[in-house]
Amino acid sequence: MASASGESVREPGARALLVASFGGPEGPQDVRPFLENVTRGRNIPPERLDAVAKHYLHFGGISPINALNRALIDAVRARLRAEGIDIPVHFGNRNWHPMIEDAVVGLAADGVESALVFATSAWGGYSGCRQYQEDVARARAAVGDRAPKLVRLRQFHDHPLFIAAFADAVREARGFLGAERPRVVFTAHSVPDSADLAAGPPADGGRLYSRQVAESARLVAQAAGIDEHDVVWQSRSGPPHIPWLGPDICDHLDDVAARGYDGVLVCPVGFVSDHLEVIWDLDTEAREHAARLGLAFGRVATPGADPRMAQMIVELIREHLDGAAPRRSGNVPQYGCTRNGAPCAVACCAASAPRPRTGG
Ligand SMILES: CC1=C(CCC(=O)O)c2cc3nc(cc4[nH]c(cc5[nH]c(cc1n2)c(C)c5CCC(=O)O)c(CCC(=O)O)c4C)C(CCC(=O)O)=C3C
Ligand SMILES: [Fe+2]
User: How far apart are CA 294 and CA 335, in angstroms?
Assistant: First the structure.
């Protein structure tokens, strides 16, 4: 497919779809074990973990992410039915139940020999892509000889339907924002600068993640008729002496206010649904910060279970089943489609990979 690596594959015989995501706690008792799963083998300070646990507990220990993914899966099932594609949709997460290992056990028990995997991250880079490949490989290894072949659908940062869903949401949020001179600001999850530098196949020159985020922001802004915008970062978690992508959204709001804007429209282009990092880091922290600065604050809705997301996923499936041509609206390279958790290219995202995980 266009701009994808030589290792990209097609899987016309796939018989199921596995939706793979991050996972999140579904009650207070889940919060600590969930966070331990997320941060195993990572260099996250304990103070940060305590703070993040509080954010989850503020919402009763329930992350919205699993319910949002279930709604997306329902929309995908409806769309598959409408298009006459008869494949079941399974659900498995990296960090919380239903776990991806259990989902792959389920596929094997159903006699599925080949399945496609949709990961709920649009992006290249270690956290957004390579780690999902590792999840696929780990889940297959846990199931053993009977594990089905698993082929991941490609990255989708510039898919016209993904861009259109965000662009409509920008237009709508702008209509509600009571500001005369608002600044439009796109955000995505920060990652260590070293991880961004190592993101993508080395031959591409690195920074695949931040380049894709900037490209999505540009395409959404263009489609929404926005002349000027910024791209900033949120939710950093590493120790302070390690450089992460910046500026941070709240520091940036200081700047926006100082430059004489009277409002800000924040578009979390880095996330496909309104999960905790959106409802806490933006709707709670950034909103309060904007209020202190006297800035009107509007937050753009993420696609969630928007019918266009389901339609996009079914189009990505058809690239495999029917050989449909990939639809893309940008020029930044895109990868992610590999078999059985293979990396997208030799040494793709390699230098950023932390110590391998030992447990589930
Ligand atoms: C690029 C990226 C995405 C977007 C791509 C994608 O969607 O995959 C993303 C999504 C998400 N991140 C999430 C949650 C967390 N991320 C953490 C930690 C980290 N994220 C990182 C990066 C990303 N993260 C990184 C480099 C770390 C440092 C530790 C490490 O290298 O692994 C931590 C640990 C505590 C903290 O420090 O915040 C938590 C709890 C949730 C679920 C929210 C919910 O429950 O609703 C989602 C969708
Ligand atoms: Fe994260």
Answer: 42
